[in-house]
Structure formats: C-alpha cells, structure tokens
C-alpha cells in the first residue's frame, strides 16, 4: 500500500481495527447460533453482544502484545476479548478453527471492498454518460494505427468507455458473488465438531452465502477469479488513460487533463502541461494486473490447505483493492474535468485536406457510371496532391477543378460527398444501445 | 501449439479451413442482409449460398498465394471466392471493413472453443461425481500444512473438486457470453457505410449478440476476461493434479495414476510408477496461466484500434484453448481411472497411533468434571508417548491403562471417543449441498 | 509457434531431426569417453561415429512409431539407432539416464538459439549505429509526457536504442553462459554408475561447461534466468517499436515504416500508411514477456526433479526464441529502411513559436541584472501570447518588440538565445561514450 | 510493504528521510562540481556541506507541507533546504532537472538494497555450506516424481542449494551493476545546460558509473533486469522451501523446521508441527515473482520519458526488495536450525525392502554370465514380492534364498550389491566442485 495512492474508506477496510471488529462479529454470531442449538448458554451470546453494544475501542496494541507471546493471532484476539467480556466469553469459538474466522473475515472485507469499487464504477459511469451526451455530436477524427481513418464523434469514444465500464461493473458483481461465502466447518471442513446450522446463521447475518464444501479454508479459485477481474478492470483504466494521453500530445491537443487557473506547468517551461494523472493511471494499472499472477498461483494449495496463500493475500488484499479504488477515483476526476477542444478536433479532422471523404467520392463516381478502375484513378490523382501538400490543398477544390470528375458528377454532388454529418447518422442508434 | 498436447476437435477450430469457412458465412449472411435492405441484388446472396451448398473445398494454398501479392488476408480471401463464385461475388463485403470479418470470426471460434471446453468440464464433473459417490465414506486423513490433521473422506476431497469445477463451468459460461458478440460497424464503428441491421442479421445467424458500440474492433476487455477465466480454470486443474501427485508419493501411496497390467514403470527400477500425467498437468496449467498477462495487456489499444493485439491472439487463441482442452481431457482420464487404495488410507490414518482422536478425549474428560488443565495434562502425557513411538504405541491402550483417566471415564466411554464415524456425520449434508 | 512469425534457422533448431542429431552426438561422445575409461569397447564408439559419418537421414516417423509402443522417447531413439548401427550400439547410454540426454540437448539448443539471437542483435546494432551517425545532428523535439520539452537530435534517440541493445547483448551473453552446461550424472546426480570424466568429455566436445552439481536434471534457475533475459529484450523491442509508432502518427509524421513505391496503403483510403510492423512487434513483445512467468514457476521442482517443467519447455523453448528471433529481425528491417523526415521534425520543433527557448531567455535576463521575478514575468507575458496563438506568433519577434526586454538585452543577445545548435554541444561527447 | 514481512535495515533505505538524504548528497556533490567548473561560487558548495556536517534532522512533515502547495516534491525539498542553509543554497540544482535527482537516488537505493541482499545470500550460503558438510554423508533417498529413485545424501541436497544460491549471488552482482548508474544530463539528456563533468563527479562520489546516454531518465531496461533477477532468486527460495515442506510431511518427516522446547504446535492437537515458515516463503516468492511483470512493462516509456514507471516503482522498489530481504533471512534461519532426522531418512530409505539396489543386482547377474532377459526375470520375481509386501520383505533375503540367483552369484557377492556406500563414491568430487 502506497499512501499517496490510497483513499481513506478503502484503507479502513484493511485496518487492524476493522479486521478485529469483523472477527468479533463472526464469533458473536456463531455463539448466538450455538446458543440457539443449546450447545452453549444463551447468556454467553448475550454477554458478547452486550459488551459490543458499548462500542468498545479495539486495543490493537494489547492484542499484538498477547500475540507476541502466543504466536497465534486468533488466540490472542480471543484472549483479549475474554479479558474484557469476562467469564461468559469462554464459550466463544467452540468447535471452530482459526480459518473459519480468518476466511470468513476476508470474504467480508472483499465484499466491502467490492461495494466501494462498484460505487467507484457507478461514479465513473455517471461522468462518462454526462460527457458522452455533452459531446454526442462533437466531430473528431477516428484513428486506426494512430493514423487518421474516418470521422467519428467524441461522444462515441466516451460511449465506448461507458459500455466497457458497464461490462466491468457486471464482472465485478459476479466476482463479488464469487467471494461472498462463509465457511464455519472445522479443522478439515467436515463439521465434525460444529453444526452446519451455525455456518448458515453466521452467513445470513453477514450477508454471505454458505460455502457448499470447504476444506480447512474457502477454496482459492474464488479469490483468483476476484483478483483476475480487478486485473481486467485495470486494463480498461489503462485504455481510457492512454486515450487521454494521446489526445493531450502537443501535436494533437484535442483534450487535456484539467489545469486550474494560475497553475504552473513548469517553473522553467511555460508550455508544459503534462498528462501526469493518466500516465500515473497507466502505472497503477500495471500493478493491479501484476497481482493477478500470484492470485492464480494461490489456487493449488496442498491437500486440505497449506498457508502459502496467506502472505500473498496480506499483500494483494489491500494493495489491489486500494490501488484500484484510487485509480477509479482518479480516472473519474480526470474525465469529469477533462478539457475538451472541439475546435482543435475540427482542425485536426481537416488537416488532411478532406482526404477522409475520398471513399465516398469513389463510390459516387462508380454509381454515376464510371468504371471502378477509372474512378479510383481519378480520385487518387487528386488525393495524392493533397497528401503531398500535407493537407494544404483541398481535395474538394481539386475535384471540382478536375474536368473528368465534373463530367460525371455535378459540383453539388461532389460537395455533398464532403458532408461530415453523413458519418453520424447512426450515432443515435448507438447511444440508444449503450445508454437505454 | 504443441502437437502432443493437442486434440483434434479443438485444433480444427483454429485451422485455416475453419477460419475461411467462418469468413465466408459472415460475408454471405451480410450480403443476404444487404439484399433484404435493397442495397445489393438478391441474386448476389443467392449465388454465394448456392456455391457454398456445393461444399467447396477451401484452397488454402491458393488464398495464401494471392495474399503473397496483396499483402492482405481478407482481400486475398475475397478474391479467391470471387474467382469461384463469379460476377455476383462483387457485392460481397460492401461497406464492411476487414476487422468486421476478423473479429466476428474470432468470436465464433472462441464460442466454439468454449463449447468444447464446457463439454470437457461436464465430462470431468461426471467422473468426479461418480468417484465421489464411490468413496463417499472412504476414510482418509485430512492434512493441513502437509501434516495429519483430522479424518475426512476421500469422497469429500472429490466433492470439493466437483464444486470447484462447477464454479469454473459457470465462469466459463459467463466468459463465453462475454466474447459472443458480433461487430459489423465499419471503419471506426460509426456504421457510416453499413446499416446496423446487417450486423443484427449476421449476429442472429451466428448465434452471437450485437456489440453495442465498437470501434474498428470488438473491445478487448472481453477477450481479456475470457483468457483470465481460462487461467483460473488452469489453477483448479493444478490443484487437483497436485493432490494426486501428493497421494502417489512413495511414503503416502493412497492413490495412483492408472498403470495398465504388464506396463513397466522403468526398465531398471521396477518400483517406479510416477505420476507423470499430473506432473504434466501442472506444467500445462503454468502455460495457460501465462497467457493471461498478454491478454490483459491487449486491452489498452490506441484510439479506435491498433493491431498489436492481433499477433498475441494468433498465439494465445489456439494455444490457450487447445492446451486447456487437452489438460481437461487428461485430468478426466486420470480421475476416471485413478487407482484408490482405501487400505493404505486407513493405514496412514492409523499411523499416528490414534492421536487424531486426542481432542475428543480431552473434551470428554472436561465434561466428566476434570479441570481443563488436568485433562490436558492427562491426555498429553499419554499422547507424547505415542508421538515418540512414531505411532507404534496406541493412544487408546495407554489411556485405558491410565488409572487417572479411568477414574473419570469408563473403558467404554474412552473407546467411544475413538470412533472414526463421528467425523463423518455431516458428509451427507455436504453431498446434498454439492450434488443436489 | 506461429509460422508467420518464424524464421527458418531458428525453427530448425527445434525440429525433431535437430533434436535427435544432438541426442546422437551426446550418446556417441559419452560412449567415446566410456571407451577411454575402458568401460566399453573402443569398437562401440567407432561404430557409432562410422555410421554418423555417412550422414544418415534421421527417420522421425520410425522413431515415433517405436515410441508409440515404448511410451519413452529416449528408449525409442536408442532402439532406432541400434537398428541402424547394429550390435555395437548396445554399449550406448551405459550408466546414463534419459535426463542426461534431454537436459544436455536442451542446453545445446538454447546455446544455438542464443547464438542466432546474438547475431540478430549484432545486425540490429549495426543498423542503429549507421542510422544514428546519419542523423547525429538532425534536430528534433524531445518529448516528455508526450509534450514538447527541449530539442534533441534524432541521432541521439538512436544512440539511446543502440546503448540499450548493447546492454541486452551483454545480458544475453550472460544468459547463454548460464544455460551452457552439461549434466551426465545419473539417476539422482550422484554419478553412482557413471564416471564424472564422461560428463567432462561430453561437455568439452559440445562447448558446454560441466554442471557442478545436478539432481536428476540441470537446475531450472538457469533456464528461468535465460527466459527472463529474453523478456527484458522484448521490453526494449517494444520501446523502440513504440517510438516509431508515435513518430508515424498522422499529426507527428516525423518518420515512417518503409513503403515500397507503388504499394497501396488501403484500397479505399489512399492516405493510410500504418505502422503495422511496429504494432506487430508490440504484440510479439507481450508474448515473449508472457513466457517469463511459467519459466519462473519452473524453478521449484520437487526433490531431485518432477517433470512439470518439461511441458512448459516444449512450448516456451521454441516459442520464446523463435518469436524473439523474428522480432529482432523485423525490428532491424524497420530501422534499416525507416523513412525519416527531417523537414517535418523541424516543422514540429518550430510549431510552438520558439517557446522551447524560453528558459534560456529567462536565464539571460537574470544574468543581465533583472530580478528573477521580473524576468519570469517578462518572458511569461510574451510566451503566453505565443501559446495562445498555437504557435502562430513567434516568441523571438514578440521579445524583440517588448521594450522592457530590450532594455536589458540587445536584439543580438536575444536572437542568440534562439540558437538550436546550443542544445547539441555535447552530442559528440555522448556519441563517444556510446560508440567508442 | 507488509510490516510483518519487513526488516529494519532494508525498510530504512526506503524511508523519506533516507531518500531526502540521498537527494541532498546528489545536489551537494553537483554543486561542488559546478564550483570546480566555475559555474557557481565555491561558497555555495561549502555552505551546503557545512550545514550537512551538523547532521541536521530532515523534517519530512515540513517538506510535505511545502509539497502540498508546490505540488512538486523536488522543488519542495529544495525550498526546505534553502530555508535551512540560507542564501547560498540558491546555486543548488543549476541546470539539472528533477529526474536527475530522482533517478540517481533510485540507483543509490537499489545499490544499497543489493548490498543488503548480497549479504543475505552470503549468510544463507554460509549456513548451507555448514549444514552440507555436516550431512555430507547422511544417506537419504533421492526422489524423482515424488517417488523413491536411488540413494543420495542430505549433504548433496544442500550442496545443490548452495550452488544455486551462488549462481543467484553472481546474478545479483550483475543486476546491481546494471542499475548502478548516475544520470545528470538535463531535461532530455543532451547536457544542454549542464556539463557532463558534473555527472562524472557525482557518479564517482556515489560509487555509481555514468549513464552513457540517458533521455530525461535512466533507461528502464536496467530496472527490468534488476527486478527480473529478484524474481529468479525468489524461484530458488521457493524451491528450497518446497523441499523442506515435503521433508516435514507426516509420512516423510525426515526434517522439520525448528520448534523450541516447550513450544506447542496446537492447543488441541499435540502432533501438529507445521512447516509454516517455508509455506510462508512459498507465498512470498509468488509476490516477488509477481513484481517482475510490471517491471518489464515499465521499459517501453514514450519518447524521452513518460512518468508511468514512477508509480510502479513506488510499489515494487520497496516491496520487492523488502520482501526478498525478509525471505532470505527467514530461509537462512530455517536452514540454520533445521531439525534433521538421519534415522528417519534411513528408515524411509529402507522402506522399500532394498528395491533401490535392484539395478546393481541385475547388472551383476549379467556380468556373471546370465542373459539380460533371464537376469531381469530373476530380479523381478523377487522384487515384485517385496513391492507387494510394501517393504515388509527384504529383497536381499529373498535373493539369497533364490537358488537360481545363488547359482550365479555367491551370497557375499549379492550382499556386496546392497552396499549403500557405493552410491556415495563421487560425493567428494561434487563437493570439491561446489565448495572449492
């Protein structure tokens, strides 16, 4: 976890206080279920909840001090709770193993992290939608291979991003469901010393589903899927960030990350306004993707469990979710305030002297009876002049001055082919598909 | 693609013949839709389908020869089709771009690959279920950290694998849906020169959904999710393979990959029967996981597309699906014929001299009124003797001979605590959850 | 292996014929050493070499047919050799295990692959040096964050690439040395049944060093290091490819991948000349990097070996080396023929109206006695006008017309600060460092 | 960075105080060089060093507070220094850019980290050597595929680990040299405003070499190679950790991680002594390997630099080095105190009833004139009985009782073939190779 790439709400999920709080709730809910089953006295559950109702501060240092002796984090925690709750606490944890607590706690943490990330995506989607509608018909050049291709609109670019993050939202929902399970099944998952109804009760209270069959742990294919999904989302972040970085290039400059009035780009070079936020997002995406590999390697635990996954999760649990949360927030900010320059878009669109319309003229000539070979030759000989002039000449003007062309097409017909709006006839249809 | 790790049906999906066949179908369906819209003559579509009905052999060499000249695979293909179909073929591909064909074709291939993989998982699930039921109550030691923990059953191990691959099946269904889209939207996705109804028609014919908004290509977050899902499945394969490898270790030998009667393990060492299939699966899992990273890096294409994803997909499209298909098939074979040794499982279970039951005796002494401290001391002093004898002594016998123990518990009560069946009371519940 | 991304010489290294040829040489050299030690008759070695001198064709199909029965590739090969050589062949392989042959063969293959890759890098270095010298003083704008920064030369860009690939050459030499070892040490590496002098002899004959201590196999940290090094080289390929892609963007167009005269960029759009080769290289780099992860996972084999590494190496041995070889060759071709447009570079350099010189004017004003605050304000008020004019105005002209500026600096002094050559005073020093 | 997997010395390298201290030294050395060149007054350098000689405490909070305003970390730092040093500090940083400071600082940090890691490896090597010599002739079974193969010694296993970590030491030395460079070359690496002799001076003072040609930054192929090397070392850690985990399995139990006298494995299960340290190392290795991928992706920065690498390095700089340092230390501790059980090794070695010697008997029969077919049959019929008895029968005893065998070999000759020492004749040779 790197503080400068962290936000408070997500970081709080991974604090020791939050973890111990979840542990307590798992234990208390389980004790309640055990009381319902007559295994422990009702007073045991009551005592736990009564103490919890006082909103006691969790003394992490005290628990750590006990762990330094017991070398066991769950036992240390239970001891500290017992010191506070008193005699009745001895019924806690009956028939359970540490992993029941640890794994169910991790599920709760990942669910909470998912909920923050889903909210992050919702915020991003709202911004993307607003900006897409704002620029629904802002013409801009579409580029394949970094080379001008045909016109599109800036709104369509944003609609594409919206659709992509909508898919990511669905994937994250699925990933959330995948890790939202509870296991309280004992040392090797047989429920030998604990009734499955305890598990069902705790699961229901925590908003989790029951793990159908666990070993000592919740199986790690669930977590692998979760972190892989975060990696895909990171890829989408990088894609949109890369788009902004390209648009802000000096020679392109169709959009820019927001600069506040009076802000200095550089003390020495007044022209420097760098897309540092989206470059930063590119790097953060690399990190979130990098966590996918160890998560995938965590699946193949030995037999009913080995503990190799644990250290990995101490890193990637916080690091992947905190980084992605920060990145989504930063991307939302970038897109929200993005400075968009329609005039520059138009200028770039025009910089090829109308070459982007050559295909339509070609087609029109053919439909007017010129053979395809001749039509191609006629367009090309004019297009090449425009190309060589680096867009200083105008294809439209050259064509209108070419007698062979005007023999087949009237000036009006030629001009009609240079209609930018022609390219946008289906924008509405696409927006319907995306935002309806 | 490594031939020895390939199966025919999956490999066929990626053959040039299959690819060109899909291209033809996309073009012919599109031409049909264009005819419906009155853009091209009905006869054009009819001519294409009439030729296709003759089941023409696709001459890959001829197409390659044309590509060597045109440097463009789709144009080469169209030229070859035109050479065969004749004049009417010139209406093909109207308003489309190469990516419309290439990307939709890739979707079809990945869908077909998914269907084979789903069938592979189904076959594996069937085997796992059969073997799980067969060994529902076969006792075996559960191990955490590779160390004996508490008893479980071999059927439960297999039920866990069944549940895991059921989850993988669901994930693969979702991944299949993610890449099952069709885009026929023109150079930069604006439908400037082609009606969206063409896309809808082709999609319906090919069993795909319509891509809501494409650029020049179908967005690659879809493919990233697909390959990431294959990586998770590979993780599960490695997990089960690792279990078999452990069980076959000389000192454990609770199960073995099948050896045919008369088969030789080694010409020199008659005792060598190696788990080579599951070791091989471990390596194959590494490969399938390794393809996840380039797939994730493919997402961030520049602007409306760059072509960097294409070379990656020429590798991982076939390699990931063919390898996973082979691996699933191999794993199914291993599990189907796995030699299971219940007697050895029981022997291993007993090798600790009954120590696995120490926890229950401790509890019983406490319930009989012995203080927890005394109870622990009583059990421990006997358990340590068993431990130090490497399981040659019996905890049960020692306890029955310990006057302090028998003062609290009758011999019958002590013996009752060594009941293996106690651990299996919830097996039925778990099987209900998994197989119901 | 994808045929279109493969070259013949590298592919040949991985052919069955090449592999079997290396196996034979290992066996024959070992037999010779055994004869030297008096363990087998001299005639055995002589018979093997006599047959080999006839340059026999290796009948892969026949060997495969035997393997289909024996299920063991090395035994199948030995059988086939014996069928050809006759009785004397029975002394082959004495005291050896299959891995002695397989692993030493892999070393030979990787050494040969390294030699091709080293030659590839040499060819690339030669091209980069030539082009760097050609453009040693071709001015171009240096960009940080994609934004114009300060002037540099195109030669310096290429010198940087040269230095980077020189480092990669050194790394590859080290990686080659790492995997250039020979192990002929028996079943678990103890030399129980074979004299270490056999290993020494074979190693010397094959140009390998002796593995100091092997298990059944050569340890896989060596191979991990090898493939990791290929991954780093792939990163450098992507970097240079990305530079070309950027330079070819429509708005930048300072350089282009070569297009042959008469070549068509697109049948419909005559302005399309896409950097498809460097985009392709970007994808290939992803693949080579993707093979690093499974190679790293191959290190932790169980005990004296498990065979999980084998399947991984059947993929990445050929795939990583063939792909990298192809990529290096393609990159060399791109750089060799790269179309460089100095005029466009100058035009881009000038497009900011001379803002790139603002820092020097600021410094000169300070040195002329203007306070830093005032100097900054003076430069800024002129620079901002240039900035807002999108480079239509000239900073030099504005400054010369600013009375407050000319009060401190003469026109000659101001003009002197707009000297592009000032930025290139150390180019020679840097070239000395890189190419000396 | 996870506190529980961190050690103080390595963590200190990455503290803000350490970073600012290195920044200061870079700036002061550069100022000194500028004074030598007459660019700035000698008094400027003197003032800086005079202040530094007072060992001032670095006020991180104050610097952060300035950064909150300037949004620029290097400027904030320079401002704070100037506040402390006074007027003379204004000559600092002349002609330099932030990256000159940042990148050279990172080099210093990675060099320091390398030195700690090299010391870690030295400590590990010392322990491995001591334990290898201690167990040079401790017999143990060699295993391929997890199955008993032939005898080896425990010392040989450790010698193999020693050789592997010796290689890793060499690799780390090379990686250290790769990142030990200094760049003070200005905005785009042209030295336009700073003399290369400044760079040379600072490099010499900091023990770095000069970067031959930089852009705005030190090229990231160097760092990629560095982190890739850490990934390889992590693979070796996992390998040795996996060996210990296997040896500690209940059924094997040939070695164990140290347990202090009186330590409890589990409150409930006295037999539980889990290899948790080596399992933990397995997970940590996954993390260090996981950082390789983002490091490789960092190479392809745009043009003269983009800043995407920076966020990645803020994570993996500390995380990879701190984790590896901790892991090496933990592994050294595990190997230092590893409980080794020679008796159990012998017991396991014998558990196959002497089958490990079958190959030698076979060979001896052949040399005594029995045909290979008959010899194989004779050995096999006895070996199979032993195999089926699960090692309860003795191959030696059966052979001695087999009249067909004793017809060819005397009892003494047979017994001679069961000589374990035979396998260890070359141990000394191997140790010479490894430790000489």
Automatic annotation (TrEMBL), chains A, B, C, D:
Residues 353-435 form the Adenylosuccinate lyase C-terminal domain. Pathway: Purine metabolism; IMP biosynthesis via de novo pathway; 5-amino-1-(5-phospho-D-ribosyl)imidazole-4-carboxamide from 5-amino-1-(5-phospho-D-ribosyl)imidazole-4-carboxylate: step 2/2; Purine metabolism; AMP biosynthesis via de novo pathway; AMP from IMP: step 2/2. The keyword Lyase applies. Pfam families: ADSL_C (PF10397), Lyase_1 (PF00206). It catalyses: N(6)-(1,2-dicarboxyethyl)-AMP = fumarate + AMP; (2S)-2-[5-amino-1-(5-phospho-beta-D-ribosyl)imidazole-4-carboxamido]succinate = 5-amino-1-(5-phospho-beta-D-ribosyl)imidazole-4-carboxamide + fumarate. One of its GO terms (molecular function) is (S)-2-(5-amino-1-(5-phospho-D-ribosyl)imidazole-4-carboxamido) succinate lyase (fumarate-forming) activity. One of its GO terms (cellular component) is cytosol. The keyword Lyase applies. Keywords: Lyase, Purine biosynthesis. Its EC number is 4.3.2.2. GO terms for biological process: 'de novo' AMP biosynthetic process; 'de novo' IMP biosynthetic process. Belongs to the lyase 1 family. Adenylosuccinate lyase subfamily. NCBIfam families: purB. This is Adenylosuccinate lyase. The lineage of its organism: Bacteria, Pseudomonadati, Pseudomonadota, Alphaproteobacteria, Sphingomonadales.
